[in-house]
């Protein structure tokens, strides 16, 4: 029993580190696709658009990681590797979806979602695109 607890704790730690790392990568993607400092915009300027975009990205990455963990077999190394691969793939696909949406809409989408004094409607579209893309990746995993 104690051996099982230690083994499962190690697995939880490994998956937790991977999940946090992938969410950090998701944060960096939002930072790169929006002008200015994301941290300053959210925590200092209280920019709701930037916060909504980041929240959707983090929820999407979390859903992909959770699905990858749930679908993994008993082999911890293979499970962690597949979680990393699916997580990075999901982040890349949300990035592609963002740039495709940017091509289809007027102006610079990254600037539009963070420059508005009020929450711009495009923020909801970007958030839905992120969550929808993450749901597609998560469904493909299981």
Task: Give a quick rundown of the structure.
The protein is an all-alpha fold.
- Which class do the helix and strand fractions yield? mainly alpha
Q: Percent helix among the residues?
A: over 70%
What's the mean pLDDT score?
93
How many domains would you count in the coordinates?
Answer: 1
Write the layout of secondary structure elements.
Elements (H helix, E strand, L loop, with lengths): L1 H32 L4 H7 L3 H24 L4 H29 L4 H7 L5 H21 L1
What does this structure look like?
With 142 residues, this protein is an all-alpha fold. It has one domain (2-141). 85% of the residues lie in helices and 0% in strands. It contains 6 helices and no strands. Helix 5 (109-115) packs across helix 6 (121-141). The protein is elongated.
List keywords for this structure.
85% helix, mainly alpha, 142 residues
């Amino acid at each position: 029993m104690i051996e099982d607890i230690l083994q499962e704790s190690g697995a939880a730690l490994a998956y937790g580190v991977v999940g946090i790392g992938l969410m950090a990568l998701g944060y960096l993607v939002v930072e790169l696709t929006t002008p200015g400092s994301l941290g300053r915009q959210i925590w200092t300027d209280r920019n709701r658009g930037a916060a909504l975009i980041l929240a959707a990205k983090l929820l999407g990455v979390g859903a992909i990681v959770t699905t990858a963990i749930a679908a993994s077999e008993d082999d911890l190394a293979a499970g962690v590797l597949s979680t990393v691969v699916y997580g990075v793939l999901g982040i890349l696909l949300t990035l592609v979806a963002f740039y495709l949406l940017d091509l289809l809409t007027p102006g610079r989408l990254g600037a539009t979602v963070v420059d508005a004094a009020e929450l711009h409607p495009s923020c909801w579209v970007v958030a839905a695109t992120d969550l929808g893309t993450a749901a597609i990746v998560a469904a493909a995993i299981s």
